[in-house]
Amino acid sequence: MTKTIRLTMAQALTRFLARQMAEIDGKKMPIFGGVWAIFGHGNVAGVGEALYQVRDELPTFRAHNEQAMAHAAIAYAKANFRRRFMAATSSIGPGALNMVTAAALAHVNRLPVLFLPGDVFANRIPDPVLQQAEDFSDGTATVNDCFRPVSRYFDRITRPEQIIPALNRAMQVLTDPAECGPVTLALCQDVQAEAYDYPESFFAERVWTQRRPRPDRQELAAAVAALKGAKKPLVIAGGGVLYSQASGELAKLVQGAGIPVCETQGGKSSLPDDHPLNMAAVGVTGTSAANRLAEEADVVLAVGTRLQDFTTGSWALFKNSGRTIIGLNSQVFDAGKHWALPLVADAAEGLSELGAALKGWKAPVAWTDNAVKGKTAWQAEAGKVTASTNAAYPSDAQVIGAVQRAMGSGVTLLHAAGGLPGELHKLWQAGTPGSYHAEYGFSTMGYEIAGGLGVKMAKPDEEVVVMIGDGSYLMLNSEIATSVMLGLKLTIVLLDNRGYGCINRLQMATGGANFNNLLKDARHEVMPDIDFAAHAASLGAIAEKVSSIAGLETALAKAKDNSKTTMLVIDTDPLVSTDAGGHWWDVAVPEVSVRPQVNAARKKYEEAVGSRQG
Question: pLDDT of 447-502, one tens digit each?
Fold first, then answer.
């Protein structure tokens, strides 16, 4: 006879989560690093009480914003290379909807996170409850349906026993290298409190290991044949290299075959910046060393990348009309993009088998030597733009140079939206795998500080540096207070260009007038004069505004010895970006305008589109 234990659905949920383990580097540990929770009437009585009962096995963390706590959970998973992850629970209504943006971020970036929003009463007797959004034509609809298009798996728990198959499916998705992404289990608030006789076997400890599918023999043979026929091969390293911990296999392959490597935003740090074959960033925000090779390459081995438009220059970067793309990816959807030769496999396994099959073969020496010379030339250009300056308003690149000199390559550098991703992708010199943490798949303003908190939770002994613009800071900064509360030190560098400088530059580049981006160009009665340092200090951080690049370097050196989160603010120039490197990006310009600047930009746009060989 099956042994059972009577628990509420919420108690069964939390007990199950606490029993899930991961095996990492030969060590067993809980696969859930904890649960982020902001309680409300939709989850405090059920999930809240259940989390309290397992608080020693499954720690609960309190945040100040639902979107931010979900960002922290996602960053934790990314910093752990998807081997460990977290859950996030909210009440119904606005609490749940605040997490939808984060769910989309995780969905785009293929990152695991478990969302547990409260939901309406399954019995519907009290309808409409507080915060319930009623659909006049659909009695089953709730705001949590907004999670459906941005979840890899979605379920609504309307009976307590439904949590058994739902959690089994959730774990399969969260741990699968191909299907990995956000899971949403909407928890009806009455059902959270309902009891059921759950089989004890449901709570048996389970250890999840990383699945590593090996390539199909025919696909491998086709990829090897294409590479052996290449005169100008190139590797694009995406985030999948890091998630697979495949940096070692990548280095062996390219060193043995003499193939240059370039990196996407997600893949940057796959190889250390000083590796002679690492051409660094590719695409719209790429280096001249990488992009000139991409233009000529006849075979492109794309490893663990979605090949989005910033990587491909809106598919105008690869100018060799006879090129072949090999898509090495665990997800077939990504592996076959743009008629690529698919090589569906784990990145480490695929690179290992490619390396073995290519043993003894090398790319033409002239191609490899040309790549190395191009890297040297790029490094000289990068050194110029990141050099120290006495300018009253330094560029983003000069601030990056200061942070690099003061902090070195041993820190984990985190950033997200605005102008910084373009500059950091080109210019930051990453050290170890995972030391460069970019959220540029969804380019979410406000990810930075919350994401830094998640990274620090994953890497408590490492220095985490967050670079952020004033626009992103104003959108979401509350987790400074959480970092202080939890004793998790961040070093935050805030670049204040008084508006959305990146989009202002794009507006100008497409012929637009300076309008509604910089604060001075937005409708106002009084120009804002925000004391960011005072604001951060009010949240508990050590904060200082510096007046120069030299002052920033001095302050960063001091920050290393600070025991809690430190924020340094510096004014920057909103109009300056690095001219070297980069590539055209498809941003459609109006066909008709009364402004000659727009008409001129449209003409250039049509010329660029006409030359594309996508």
Answer: 999 999 999 999 999 999 999 999 999 999 999 999 999 999 999 999 999 999 99
Query: Phi then psi for 378, rounded to 5 degrees?
Result: -65, -40
What domains are defined for the chain?
A: 4-208 (3.40.50.970), 217-378 (3.40.50.1220), 386-571 (3.40.50.970)
511 within 8 A of 353, measured Cβ to Cβ: no
pTM: 0.97
> How many alpha carbons lie under 13 Å from residue 128 in its C-beta half-sphere?
14
Q: Using CA atoms, how far apart are residues 237 and 481, in angstroms rounded to an integer?
A: 36
Would you give the distance in Å from CA 171 to the centre of its chain? Answer: 21
CA Rg, the chain, in Å?
25
Alpha helix (H) residue ranges in 345-364? 347-357
Local structure of 24: helix, strand or coil: strand
Q: Quick check: 155 and 184 in contact, CB under 8 A?
A: yes
Rounded to whole angstroms, the Cα distance separating 146 from 169 reads: 20
Residue type, 359: K
Q: How confident is residue 1, by pLDDT bands cut at 50, 70 and 90?
A: confident
Distance CA 310, CA 299 (A): 19
Percent of the chain with pLDDT over 70: 100
Q: Is 417 exposed, middle or buried (0-12, 13-18, 19+ CB in 10 A)?
A: buried
Residue 590: burial class (beta carbons within 10 Å; 0-12, 13-18, 19+): middle
For residue 504, give both structure tokens.
């202002």
Q: Which residues of 493-517 are buried (b: 16+ CB within 10 A; e: fewer)?
A: bbbbbbbbbbbbbebeebbbeeeeb
How many Å apart are CA 441 and CA 590, to the nearest integer?
26
Three-point CA angle 319, 320, 325, nearest 5°: 100
CA neighbor of 159 nearest in space, from 111, 126, 194: 194
CB 231 within 8 A of CB 364: yes
Nearest to 555 by CA among 496, 468, 493: 493
